[in-house]
Amino acid sequence: NMTHLEHVVEFPTAYNDFLNEIRRRKAYGVASSSLSSAMVDKLASMRIAEVRAREKFLQTSGRHLTPAFFEIFMPTLATLPAVYTPQLPSMVEMDTIPDIGPLNLEPKGSTMTSSSSIGSGINDNAMQGNISGGASSLTDDTPQQQVD
């Protein structure tokens, strides 16, 4: 049975694809974490603006309203907005992904040999643009331009 020889022939491509899969997953983790942080920051700044607007209302028009407005019509009229405290899922996978560096080996179907691209700077890290581009580079519908 010679089927195991197919694995030997395909191993260099499979290994390069494995390394690229690691980089892709790391880029996803960085992007999702960055997007989550940006969302929490945006919600915090929105809350600050809402607190100011409510305080302004209460100090101006609100002080002329009768107690019925605060007790019957809208009991929460004098309360502050809720603090958003998300419970994000654990990213355990990110702690277990090995650090393999930024070099992006040629993808499956490349005509280059493995030895010709390693350390040559050719096709260096297509995922790096996704990592350094922030959350939007993986979530935007428009293509991102890489910075060399």
Question: How does the SSE layout of this entry go?
Answer:
Elements lengths: L2 H57 L7 H7 L18 H5 L17 H4 L10 H5 L3 H4 L9
GO cellular component, one term: Atg1/ULK1 kinase complex
GO molecular function, one term: protein kinase binding
InterPro entries: ATG11
Describe this structure in words.
The chain has 6 helices and no strands. The protein is an all-alpha fold. The protein has a domain at 3-39 and 82-139. The protein is rod-shaped and about 90 Å long. GO terms for molecular function: molecular adaptor activity; protein kinase binding. InterPro entries: ATG11. Residues 107-148 are annotated as: Disordered. Residues 123-148 have a biased composition (Polar residues). Residues 109-122 have a biased composition (Low complexity).
What are the main properties of this structure?
148 residues; mainly alpha; 6 helices; 55% helix; ATG11; molecular adaptor activity; protein kinase binding
